[in-house]
Amino acid sequence: MSALTTHRLCVGHGDRTVVADAELTFAPGRCTAIVGANGSGKSTLLRTVAGLAAPLGGHVQLGDRDLGSLRARELARHLAFLPQAPLVPAGITVAELVALGRHPHRRLLGAPSAGDDAAVAEAMAQTGLEDLAERPVDQLSGGERQRVWIAVALAQQAPVLLLDEPTTFLDIRHQLEVLALARRLCDEGGRTVVAVLHDLNQAAAFSDQLVVLGGGRILAQGPPGDVLSADLLAEAFGVHAEVHLDDDARPTCRFHAALV
């Protein structure tokens, strides 16, 4: 497994730069959370790192290869991306949708292999979807749908997993289950996981590295206990907060009603 890195990466919309000169390393076996205020460029950065948007400057590498040099099918074997609100094909069942995650590994018009079936079964087991296998996806709740899309990404078995707000629509139990699953994929499977998150305390508890965006740049990056501070939260989010470290140097943020 190779590290995913960015070099003087500039991302944005049209000719408008949202984040400039990003120097980042996403290493195998490590979880990274990208945080920042609304409009700070979190999703735009993640989409560009995923190869779904062209950089305005700089480049992204997987190991020693430029991401732009990889064909779509080859890229999908290395990298799985879960967007915020993916569209569900009409009438498709849970098992059928999860099986689409195997597309990068199958020959054109080829039948699913035993390995494909095993990967789909494992992805559904990891996300607790076995009992919903034959249900149409469009009949599921928002939280159940989100778990299905996570299962699609897991079935893809790419070593790099990029998640754009993966806990959206989930209640607190399922939010924690998703983050615990991401943590296991890093710790036990050696995968690289990068997630855009809104909850700072969840981000700090789940990640090895925080990337904080604001003002068109990376304000800070590093271990959560080293990065989060009252001054940083005031700069990035415009809020007053207290930051406390537990015995494992994991920070917890307590926010005050008054804004900066």
List keywords for this structure.
alpha/beta, 6-stranded mixed sheet, 32% helix, globular, 260 residues
Set out the fold topology.
Blueprint: E1 4-13, E2 16-26, E3 31-36, H1 42-49, E4 57-62, E5 65-66, H2 72-78, E6 79-82, H3 94-99, H4 114-126, H5 142-155, E7 160-164, H6 172-187, E8 192-196, H7 200-206, E9 209-214, E10 217-222, H8 224-227, H9 230-237, E11 239-245, E12 251-259
Parallel strand pairs: 3-8, 3-9, 6-7, 7-8
Antiparallel strand pairs: 1-2, 1-4, 4-5, 9-10, 11-12
Give the distance, in angstroms, between the N- and C-terminal Cα atoms.
Answer: 43 Å
Uncertain spans, ≥5 residues at pLDDT below 50? none
Rg is 19 Å
In N-to-C order, the SSE pattern is EEEHEEHEHHHEHEHEEHHEE
The helix content, as a percent range, equals 25-40%
Number of strands: 12
Largest sheet: 6 strands, mixed
Spatially, the strands of the biggest sheet line up as 6-7-8-3-9-10
Mean pLDDT: 91
Q: Which of globular, elongated, flat, extended, rod-shaped describes the shape? A: globular
Q: Helix- and strand-based class?
A: alpha/beta
Strand proportion = 25-35%
**Count, helices:** 9
